[in-house]
Amino acid sequence: xxxxxxxxxxxxGAGHAGVETAVSLRxxxxxxxxxxxxxxxxxxxxxxxLSKEMxxxxxxxxxxxxxxxxxFRDQRITLCHGTAVDIDRAGRQVHVVGxxxxxxxxxxxxxxxxxRRLELPGRSLRGVAELRSLDDAIALRASLAGAxxxxxxxxxxxxxxxxxxxRKRGVEVAVLELGDRLLKRAVSPPVSEAVAAYHRAEGVQLxxxxxxxxxxxxAGHVVGVRTGSGRVLRADVVVLGVGATAVDDLARRAGLxxxxxVVVDRWLAxxxxxxxxxxxxxxxxxxxxxxxQRLESIQNATDQxxxxxxxxxxxxxxxxxxPWFWSNQGALRLQLVGVAGxxxxxxxxGSEGRFSVFCLRGGRxxxxxxxxxxxxxxAARRLLERGTPNEAELLAVDFDVxxxxxxxxxxxxxxx
Length: 416
Ligand SMILES: Cc1cc2nc3c(=O)[nH]c(=O)nc-3n(C[C@H](O)[C@H](O)[C@H](O)COP(=O)(O)OP(=O)(O)OC[C@H]3O[C@@H](n4cnc5c(N)ncnc54)[C@H](O)[C@@H]3O)c2cc1C
What we know:
This protein has 416 residues and is of the alpha/beta class. The protein has helices at residues 16-27, 69-74, 134-145, 157-168, 189-201, 249-253, 298-312, 374-386, 391-396, 401-415, and strands spanning 9-12, 34-38, 77-81, 84-88, 93-96, 102-103, 106-109, 113-115, 128-129, 149-153, 172-177, 205-208, 212-218, 221-227, 232-234, 237-240, 244-246, 262-264, 275-277, 282-286, 291-293, 324-329, 332-338, 345-351, 354-361, 364-371. It folds into three domains: 2-114 and 245-312, FAD/NAD(P)-binding domain; 117-242, 3-Layer(bba) Sandwich (FAD/NAD(P)-binding domain); 331-415, 2-Layer Sandwich (Enolase-like, domain 1), CATH 3.30.390.30. Helix 1 packs parallel to helix 7 and helix 8 crosses helix 10 (401-415). The structure holds flavin-adenine dinucleotide.
């Protein structure tokens, strides 16, 4: 009686979100088959170091592995190397290139994101790089080893992390940013200014309000970037770092709702209740609250992976987690927590090189952005996990959130 057999869970995508789902299924007591389908040839690995430690000569790919091959075997998690090309929803099977179809009771889509494609003349010249995968990082590191001058297109997190890693190698770096400040989509102006000041002091040239119109080549290799203002910046490596787009083609082919990512509800369910989508590929839509959110962070990927497993195991509550993110750029350590959105007040506390920005909306703390200020940041995170302190509470301690966090802990201990 095939219909009554446990077919298991198929996780598509062996990144942070997918692996967390599989591991959490087992730790939560799921005993059916668990298969993780991954298109990359490596064991699942950590992505953040790709734009940081891995670009230095000593960066070791083996240190990035999320879990060993033995771990997956011991946990009876089948790693299936290949690209999933079709979800047969009627037959409840996933089709993977080079493998037999895999049966499922439930599919978890964790297909991540890919670099936003920049259509530019000269795009396919040698020396033009993108950065998403371990193979990309290995190739970029090899290019940087022989490079004298790098131009980074895009002043976002990955662009600035690469700029920093390249400077550390002694390579000249210029960054072209179309907007008027760095990290504009993610942080407030005081943080953008601090990041720009840090990189300038490190010798990075920053060009704002500038875009590339052409990658100039010679003998098949990039030699420069022509900009909208007619400048040509010399370059032997050009890094395209202009954001990422969700991988939702498989979902679209399967007839699921997509809209700049795989559309899911507050339970992370797609338009097919047997299919959940998580991590960078998922857009969480809440029609009641009028919100729509696609996050690209390790916290989001792992929290959603853990939640997807819990929901398969019977969790009834909708997904909820406090978003947080970090970026290390040389000696600069940025930490963000909360959702800033339309902020109506910013309060900055700290000194020039070490401060936090408190973002207030409707008189309540909604997000905190910290530059080299991990103590305050962790206190702010603990507070935001418990609720959203109001401005009067914060003013009473002159925004020293460590005092508030300590008080909250003392109160909780007293109650316990
Ligand atoms: C260079 C870099 C640096 C970063 N640094 C930070 C940082 O400092 N802090 C932070 O919080 N976040 C950082 N991020 C973001 C973070 O890595 C992502 O948010 C996170 O990896 C998302 O996890 P995911 O599992 O959703 O997707 P991914 O990690 O992208 O994994 C998705 C996987 O699915 C595979 N896949 C896609 N389609 C298929 C298919 N059809 N069949 C089989 N496999 C498929 C892909 O090949 C990929 O391996 C960084 C990202 C990059 C690229």
